[in-house]
Design goal:
Number of strands: 6
Distance between the termini: 96 Å
Shape: flat
């Protein structure tokens, strides 16, 4: 019997009868209660509630759709990005899980303080490079090497497109304008927060053509903290509704600007005789 389970009146009566008759001992109930105790790690406490995680998943699902469209348009190849998981773990655990080399974009969480990471599996990165230069991603699926300067330029451009989608996906929560700071290939050289700090890690299954891999977005909790209170379903839907109302207002204004409106302007009048009209010459003044 779980500690948060609510019993009906009939169940309570049955339990009391069992205790009175001796069929169930109080000690047995205590033991059963103890078995349901959940382990809690105070070193790695969960920072986000279930409601906040659900809102975050909605944000990242929208982000995945936006990035899929951006990649497909840019590379002229079918791109699919879907949310695989959202976890709360320490920064050290995230770093240890990454391959080496990899593609880590260090980004600023502007206008808020702090940095976050967009990590791209090398297979996905090589597929993007190959498609950009007209090749096929199959040619470099098994390559593991450092990226050249020209390849890094291509990856930076793609990262900026991803950041545009990131801003669009978060617009109902905050007006984010993230900026790419630098690219790094060695996870061990990237330390944006202390190792014990908690991070929110979103993992995306990514497919470009025939190439599959992962893209990770790692945001330290301390960076996300200023807007955590807005990660609620109620705030999300109210912000969406306000945006919808604003869009309707813009459309109405746009329609009104195209409407024809007759306008007549009268500057003034005066009365003159036919004789005065026939006698008008250059320089005469008619007072209105």
């Amino acid at each position: 019997m779980a500690s948060d389970e609510v019993l009906s009146q009939s169940e309570i009566d049955s339990l009391l009868d069992a205790l009175s008759s001796g069929e169930v001992e109080a000690e047995e109930l205590k033991e059963e209660e103890e078995e349901e105790v959940q382990v809690y790690d105070f070193k790695h406490p969960n920072k986000l509630s279930k409601d906040q995680l659900r809102t975050l998943r909605m944000i990242y699902e929208g982000f995945g759709r936006l990035v899929s469209t951006a990649i497909s348009t840019q590379l002229r190849s079918v791109g699919q990005i879907e949310v695989a998981s959202i976890e709360q773990l320490s920064y050290d655990e995230f770093i240890r899980s990454l391959p080496q080399p990899t593609v880590m974009s260090i980004c600023e969480f502007h206008p808020f303080h702090g940095q976050f990471i967009i990590e791209m599996n090398p297979k996905v990165a090589f597929a993007i490079v190959e498609r950009t230069f007209g090749g096929t991603e199959v040619e470099t699926q098994n390559q593991i090497r450092e990226f050249t300067d020209i390849e890094e330029v291509v990856l930076k451009k793609m990262t900026k497109k991803i950041l545009n989608s990131f801003s669009e996906a978060w617009k109902n929560v905050a007006d984010l304008r993230p900026r790419l700071k630098e690219l790094e290939s060695n996870p061990q050289f990237t330390q944006i927060v202390p190792g014990n700090d908690m991070v929110i890690l979103a993992t995306f299954n990514t497919k470009i053509g025939d190439t599959e891999g992962l893209i990770n977005i790692c945001i330290p909790y301390i960076v996300l903290e200023p807007i955590v209170s807005k990660l609620s379903a109620q705030f999300w839907f109210s912000a969406s509704r306000e945006e919808e109302d604003e869009g309707e207002t813009k459309e109405l204004k746009k329609s009104l600007t195209r409407a024809d409106l007759p306008v007549e302007v009268e500057l003034g009048t005066t009365n003159i005789t036919v004789g005065q009209l026939l006698g008008l010459k250059k320089g005469d003044v008619l007072r209105l």
